[in-house]
Amino acid sequence: MYHYLRDSDTSSQLWTSHCPRRNTMNTMVQLNPPEQFATLPSGCTICYQVCGEQTSAPPVLIIAGHGSSMTQKIGGLINLLTKQSYWVILFDHRDTGLSSVFPTPPEGSSESAYTITDLADDVIGLIHHLQLDAVHLVGFSMGGPIAWQVAARLPAKVASLALCLTSPVGRQQLPTDNLPPMHLEGQWLLGEAFDPPQDENAYEAWVQFYMGLDLCLATQPPTAAERKDSRRQSELTYRRDREGGTVFSKFHHSRASGVRWPREMLKQVKCPTVVIHGAKDQLFPAEHAAALRDDVDGARLVVLENCGHELPHRAQQPMVDAICENMARQQR
């Protein structure tokens, strides 16, 4: 049965700020709290950030979606979590922000620079680097299959799991998956918005591109505050991507995530799990969310009304409520 939480009109403040530093653009980006770096056994360097007051309780580790760094539109979630005394770890996926850049496969090659399992290896490496005894995982969209792989492979360390706006299979599936395909509407909207500038130095063009991707799946016209946040977040994302050399390399995620996701590993997840889905998600049909719930023993499903494949202000409080309720299940 679907468990519905109604939206609220919660607004958010962006949790990041930036100030000038020196680099090839004559500006560098300073996050508050500051960035830190972890070099993993694989040789990959991951940029991460710790928000909130560190306690003995497990942190919340947020795993962003396709092509997204730690500056994705989740500022309101961070503020709401830290206000409830949770501390939060964010990080840049490889090929985003200030994390390692990987070479593009030769033109015409069908090979991927890496796999979605490699992205899960990065998260596991970061958990070990930080010597975390336990962690709450929250995965958005492509971050979902990364999160459940980590939960399946590190059952003793993952205290809870939240799978947000995601799918058990992604774009590809087997006949035995018995799921409807991704919605064509959302894929068309993303395709229309996906026209990146060819000049990596074209500041305003890139900001407008990021804003277009951010808002193209909105189910309601964005408020003035949401447009302002989108502009700030897009400026920050571009400046950090330009600084890190990941303006174009983030598109490697398309090949990494374009295969069928490891649905079978969901059966290995043993921690309290909540699936959070938008009732109007334009990419993943509701059946995908129900399948996630059914594939994880004891998982719960929360459907956000008037929300699609997006993170508008109005959905952030009910989303955090669902995440916190699920984390509390681990403590009982």
Q: Which regions have little confidence, pLDDT < 50, spanning 5+ residues?
A: 1-30
CATH-defined fold name: Rossmann fold
The count of DSSP E runs of length 2 or more, i.e. the number of strands, is 9
CA radius of gyration? 18 Å
Average pLDDT reading: 87
Order of helices and strands: EEEEHEHEHEHHHHEHEH
Q: CATH superfamily, please?
A: Alpha/Beta hydrolase fold, catalytic domain
Number of domains: 1
Corresponding CATH architecture: 3-Layer(aba) Sandwich
Mind sketching the topology for me?
Elements (H helix, E strand, L loop, with lengths): L2 E3 L30 E4 L5 E7 L8 E4 L11 H9 L4 E4 L24 H14 L5 E6 L2 H11 L4 E7 L19 H10 L9 H13 L8 H21 L7 H6 L15 E6 L7 H10 L4 E5 L8 H19 L1
Parallel strand pairs: 1-9, 4-5, 4-6, 6-7, 7-8, 8-9
Antiparallel strand pairs: 2-3, 3-5
Protein name: AB hydrolase-1 domain-containing protein
Pfam family, one: Abhydrolase_1
GO molecular function: triacylglycerol lipase activity
Question: TL;DR of this structure?
Answer:
By secondary structure, this protein is an alpha/beta fold.
How would you describe this structure to a colleague?
- The chain is of the alpha/beta class and 332 residues long.
- The protein has one domain: Alpha/Beta hydrolase fold, catalytic domain (Rossmann fold), CATH 3.40.50.1820.
- Helices cover 34% and strands 14% of the residues.
- It is built from nine helices and nine strands.
- The protein has helices at 75-83, 116-129, 143-153, 184-193, 203-215, 224-244, 252-257, 286-295, 313-331, and strands spanning 3-5, 36-39, 45-51, 60-63, 88-91, 135-140, 158-164, 273-278, 300-304.
- The chain has a nine-stranded mixed β-sheet, with helices on both faces.
- Strand 4, helix 1 (75-83) and strand 5 form a beta-alpha-beta unit.
- Residues 58-311 form the AB hydrolase-1 domain.
- This is AB hydrolase-1 domain-containing protein.
- Pfam families: Abhydrolase_1.
- GO terms for molecular function: triacylglycerol lipase activity.
